[in-house]
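A common beginner's mistake is to predict each chain separately and then try to dock the pieces by hand. The better habit, illustrated here, is to supply every component at once so that their relative placement is modeled jointly.
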Amino acid sequence: MLKATRSSVRAALVGAAFALALPASALAQDFSEGSNAKEWGLAGEEKAMFSGKVVDFLCELAGDCADNCGGGNRNLGILRAKDNKLIAVLKNRQPAFNGAAEDLLPYCNKDVDVDGVLIGDDEVVKAKFYMVQFIREAGQSEWKKTTLWTKQWAKKNPEFAKGKGPWFRRDPRVAKQIAATGNFGIGKEADEKFIKDNE
Amino acid sequence: MRASKIKTAVLAGAAALLALTPSSKAATGGDIIEIKGEVIDTWCYFSGVMGGTDAVVGTAHHTCALWCAAGGIPVGVRTEDGEVYMVLKYQGEEPLSQSDTIMEVQSDTITAKGKHFLRDGLNYIIVENVVANEGILNLNHEDFGAVPPFSAPKKPKK
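With all components supplied together, the output reads:
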């Protein structure tokens, strides 16, 4: 009897050790069911549709809460309903270096459904990040594509919005930095050398 | 029979452990810490969309980091050990405010003091004070060129 108990305990410990040894991704839940997200071929990419609440990180983590989640000046995330995980949203669906704050802001502190992709398989940072591609307020049937960023940029930069080329070629803040320190950020000489070496 | 018992016990052990594992860790922190690392664009770093992590930092990726910071993609500080701290505020400024402050430090190696929070495996920092800014130290454009290539400097038009 004692022998059997020891054996069972040992086996239970083996099971616990096995569970501990599983990578975080293996323990992660699958949120892909029903997703209509477009895959981008990104690191650790998983389609993910889930429900949650749009939150301001500063408020959620530090209790530093602002009106309307900071009005577009703060990074926003989603507190996922199923497991209460705080999901860092890095990107909207636009393929032009756009974050997601503008698309999340109309839903500040509201319950939403989102569809997109979770990404990330970093060796050190054991967290997944989110690209939100569709969003709707909880209870609504119609999804909205997350494409607000460039519209908001044009509103904030009317004098630059009518030019040719993508926004990032015309953005005054980007242009100011490149004018000051070059594309590589270490001075115009490095840019000139690069151009010469690649002629 | 014995094998069946062992199998049951193994499953029970795993199930018990999983049951004890919280589905989400509560935020911890608010403690003041000091970190030293490079200011990075978190989207390109974690998504691999532009290539490996060695290529999406430093001078090679500087212009893209400017685009992403201006585009409202969260900025992070990557320390030497590979940990990344998501920047919630930078010396009193909210990161998406339309100022030049966060733009001026892209790709720089900084030593920063601030309030640290850890939530669901991810580090966050409210940078209160930049103790030192060593500028851009990683001259990896010498190895990778510009990443992405369309961010390379161009010959001025005559």
